[in-house]
Specification:
The chain is mainly alpha-helical and 170 residues long. Helix content is 41%, strand content 7%. It contains three helices and four strands; from the N terminus they run αααββββ.
Amino acid sequence: MAHWKREQPELLSNRRGYTLIEMLVTVAIISILASMAMPYAKMTTVRNQELELKRSLREIRTALDTFHKDWKEGRLNKLEAGASPDGYPKQLTQLVEGVRLSGKLEQRKKYLRRIPKDPFSDASLAAEQQWHYIGYRDSADAEQWNGIDIYDIRSQSERQALDKSSYRDW
């Protein structure tokens, strides 16, 4: 035991901690690495939002096309389908609520489980209010929706995509 007590002070005197310079260099290196990673993380987030926008547009457009096809082929009860004279839904919510099929049975067909959200829109708005609607008789670049039917949709965002195109043009 006496031998152990004699060596203890020597061990303590030989130990040393990190100096202030070493700590500052470490913090500087970590800061440089973090500053290089931030733009990459931002770009990854935007890219994910763009993919979500593409999926949402495809999902809604497919539902609109399927609704119109069913209307043209007489699968929908034209009196109760809530379709315009051109065969497109009057409201986007009809695709979620479903429409009555033609025939004797009381059957409803739903085209969407939910209305997808626009990732570049105001999140406080309801999903159906986040989109700019285009009616069948509207021009493709119309700023005002005719209110008759929904032939197509687009994002309301004024932002530019990573490829410099406008989200409104997708």
